[in-house]
Design a protein that fits this description.
This protein is α+β, with helices and mostly antiparallel strands. The protein is built from 3 helices and 7 strands. The strands form 2 sheets. It has a 5-stranded mixed beta sheet with strand order 1-2-7-5-6, with helices on one face. A two-stranded antiparallel sheet has the order 3-4. The two termini are 28 Å apart.
């Protein structure tokens, strides 16, 4: 049975550095056996990969890839608080926000980019409850934002371990 790190490598991916918060918050917080991430944008190398609304400046297909990047960033944040990617035993909940034009109803398909990555990395333990929400605008004019709640082994410290 392969580890989440091995499955991530099989996908040709590595965890990026944890994104620097854009405000007064931490990227992830562990409490007990759960890790909550802050919303993660589609950043790579510290730069936003796209801006604008899905259905206008960004296609639905591009947004799926951006949601995948958001999930990868969320995994990096969660792993930093959990003590490593293998410390995560289950993905519990994903919330995806899609900045989209009025009339766009493909938010669930966009957020599948995040969900499919998590399932590829964790197998059945990556299957989760989820919300996919259309919004008017996101920070930095990002098209997509993803946050997650993960379960970790052991007991937490009750504080941020990132």
């Amino acid at each position: 049975m392969s580890t989440p790190e091995e499955r991530l490598a099989e996908l040709g991916l590595t965890l990026p550095p944890v994104a620097t918060p854009a405000g007064s918050y931490v990227p992830a917080l562990r409490t007990g056996t759960q890790v909550y991430t802050a919303g993660q944008l589609p950043l790579a190398g510290g730069k936003l990969l796209a801006t604008g609304k899905v259905g206008e400046a960004v296609t639905a297909e591009e947004a799926v890839a951006l949601a995948r990047t958001c999930a990868l960033n969320a995994l990096a944040a969660a792993a930093s608080a959990a003590g490593g990617l293998s410390a995560i035993t289950r993905i519990i909940k994903v919330t995806g926000f899609v900045a989209s034009v009025p009339g766009f109803t493909g938010q669930p398909q966009v957020v599948n980019g995040a969900s499919d990555l998590l399932t590829a990395v964790f197998g059945d333990a990556g299957k989760h409850a989820r919300s996919a929400v259309g919004v008017a605008v996101l920070p930095m004019d990002a098209p997509v934002e993803v946050e997650l709640i993960a379960e970790v082994g052991g007991t937490g410290t009750g504080g941020n371990t990132a």
